């Protein structure tokens, strides 16, 4: 069980088969249907999740409108770090964009895993750094790039977005309206043809 997570872990840290078996005792598998929530605002996030299959949209609600912060796919981690680390209620929602399989570990189990095998503490630090780097790239993009630049970066770096995620959520992630996204797409396609 947890084959995807074990393979991912072996690429990051040097763990033995015996150490990999610890995953079986500390993680649980959650199956989500499309649009089902892994986490809803107002709750306390007490877990880290590894996406084995599917995609998860990270969003919050401001003035009654959903604001998509990120969309994560297979072999990535999801959580609300602020809620997870401070044990306070979250404002983030984590929602399946398609049927998904998530391997989760609760905070208490994570501490136990770290005590049993310090290599997992190194693994956890590296994963936290990866998540922080991604969040920084998104923040820089939103604050310094024009919508067309963000669109081009997304299509070049993450073409899976356009095959798996509805246009309204892509537009929301880019910080533009669906109509603006359609205009940008048309402009880009016109440039490519000429």
List keywords for this structure.
single chain; alpha+beta; Jelly Rolls; 53% helix; 194 residues; 4-stranded antiparallel β-sheet; 9 helices
What does this structure look like?
This protein has 194 residues and is α+β, with helices and mostly antiparallel strands. The chain has 9 helices and 8 strands. A 4-stranded antiparallel β-sheet has the order 1-8-3-6. Strands 2-7-4-5 form a 4-stranded antiparallel β-sheet. Strand 4 and strand 5 (65-72) form a beta hairpin. The N and C termini lie far apart (51 Å).
Main-sheet strand order equals 1-8-3-6
What is the terminal separation in angstroms? 51 Å
Beta fraction: 15-25%
Please give the CATH architecture of the largest domain.
Sandwich
The tally of helices reads 9
Number of domains: 2
Biggest β-sheet strands, sense, barrel? 4 strands, antiparallel
Overall SS class: alpha+beta
Gyration radius from CA atoms, angstroms: 18 Å
Looking at the structure, what is the overall shape? Answer: globular
Order of helices and strands: HHEEEEEEHEEHHHHHH
Q: Name the CATH superfamily classification of the largest domain.
A: Jelly Rolls
CATH topology of the largest domain: Jelly Rolls
Mean pLDDT: 94
CATH C-level class of the largest domain is Mainly Beta
């Amino acid at each position: 069980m947890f084959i995807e997570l074990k393979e991912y872990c072996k690429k990051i840290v040097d763990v033995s088969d015996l150490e990999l078996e610890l995953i079986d005792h500390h993680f649980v598998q959650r199956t989500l249907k499309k649009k089902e929530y892994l986490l809803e605002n107002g709750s306390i996030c007490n877990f880290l999740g590894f996406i084995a299959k599917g995609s998860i949209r990270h969003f919050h609600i401001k003035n009654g409108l959903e604001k998509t912060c990120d969309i994560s796919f297979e072999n990535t981690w999801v959580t609300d770090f602020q809620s997870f680390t401070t044990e306070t209620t979250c404002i983030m929602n984590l929602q399946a964009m398609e049927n998904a399989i998530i391997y989760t570990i609760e905070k208490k189990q994570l501490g136990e895993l770290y005590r049993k095998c310090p290599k997992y503490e190194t693994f956890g630090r590296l994963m936290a750094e990866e998540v922080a780097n991604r969040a920084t790239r998104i923040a820089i993009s939103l604050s310094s790039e024009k919508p067309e630049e963000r669109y081009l970066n997304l299509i070049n770096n993450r073409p899976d977005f356009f095959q798996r995620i509805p246009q309204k959520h892509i537009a929301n992630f880019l910080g533009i309206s669906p109509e603006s996204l359609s205009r940008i797409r048309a402009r880009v396609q016109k440039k490519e043809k000429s």
